Amino acid sequence: MKSFLYICLTVACLTQQVLSLSPTYGVGPEELEYYKENKYFNCLRSNVQIPFSQVNDDFCDCPDGTDEPGTSACSSIGRFYCQNIGHKGNYISSSFVNDGVCDCCDGSDEYQLKVKCKNNCKEIGEESRKKQNQVIEAYENGLKKKKQMEEEGTRVFNEKTDEIIRLRKEIDPITQEIKELEVLIEQKKSEREVENKRLLDEKEKKDKELEGTNQQQNVEKPKEGEENKEVVGENGENIVVEQPEIQTSELLDTISKGKDDNNNNNNINNNNNNNNNYNNNEEKVDHISVNDNFLNDDEGDNDEDLNQFQKILKSFNSIKNSIYNIILPILPNRFVSLKDMDLGGLESELSKKRESLKEKENEIEKIDKMLKSDLGVNNVFIPLYNKCFDLSTKEYTYSVCPYEKASQGHTSLGKFESFSDNGKIMLFENGQQCWGGPKRSLKVFMECGQDNELYDVQEPGKCEYTIKFKTPALCSEEHLKILKLESDHSL
Questions:
Q1: For the purposes of burial, counting CB atoms within 10 Å of the CB of 56, is it exposed (0-12), middle (13-18) or buried (19 or more)?
Q2: pLDDT score of 343
Q3: C-alpha distances in angstroms, 64 versus 45, 49, 68, 76?
């Protein structure tokens, strides 16, 4: 009888302890407003209404278990909030309440005193706050670097804008100079063609004159050793024409062998004993000799002289071009006249102008591409432009080049396509074809960090890769406020 009475008293005490729980016991701070004392209680996640007195009565009345936040009555669906003063509050399953295990650092889940729980929230909170403060400090450093990236991005954007304006202004005069050079070159080529034709016509004319003269000489001159011929005169009589064989032969020998004319003249003078007649004849002979020498030897000597002259002229032009090439780059434009340059110099200058124009056009194209890209708020992504970041694993080295390409070793993971999710994801598409699968692709998930750093590469789908990228560019003042609030709540 005494034993039965003891059991009844114990059950009554426990029941009284349960019944004495506050309706807000085990309720999280975000749901407290729904547990204000009233006539009825509306189950939070189901359309059921119960008397308010049934809240925390250790009997599960709501289908969602929200009427028993502080007991284990709704153990399969309910949850209990540990306040953990001095550390972070957190939820545990209702099944852990009064199970004899200390799940909350403040021991609030074991209020029936089946086990004595030590409140060690302060010690745990100190370590947690230390880590949280490190996170906050790193975030603040990230924000400072983000500010620097924005300043650098704005400066580079303005510089590139000014540069593309300057380059476009420089293109117009270069284009005009190219047109002028092209006209001058055509003029020079035309003049050269005209000069070449003139020289060719002149040569052909001389060749014809030489050919006619040779034919006339062949007809008029008798061959050496030929006898005197008889010709019929006007009245029909026969006239013997004596051939000046010896005299002509001696003259030809004198010219060809280069004998001294004075010796020949003396011999002739001694034979004829008529100095005056000889002098007169000598002038005639000299005249004939010079003409014959010019006519007979002109084909060889004249061509040789012409070739020699052309070689000299060519050497002179080559020297002149070399001098132009040396002094042209260092002289101001006002001292150099394009009209004074020869064809070779003009063509060299045209080649340089075209090369300069091409370089400027390529630079304009590159700058224009950058300025039209998504550069983030306040141009914060510009410092990432034309840079690559690597992550080495045991198998591969992954490389990500924003705005360009991504790779896995020597395997392409795609070319940069765009940003998504408000600049939080970089997309790389159309990489190397995967064997029996799609073309490789990569998603880069960006998050705040003190430095630009890749980590945690994954392959969630066949040849579909993901990687995380810490960068100051993704830090925000709003998120820093949230981190600080979390830290305050843990006090």
A1: buried
A2: 84
A3: 6, 12, 10, 10
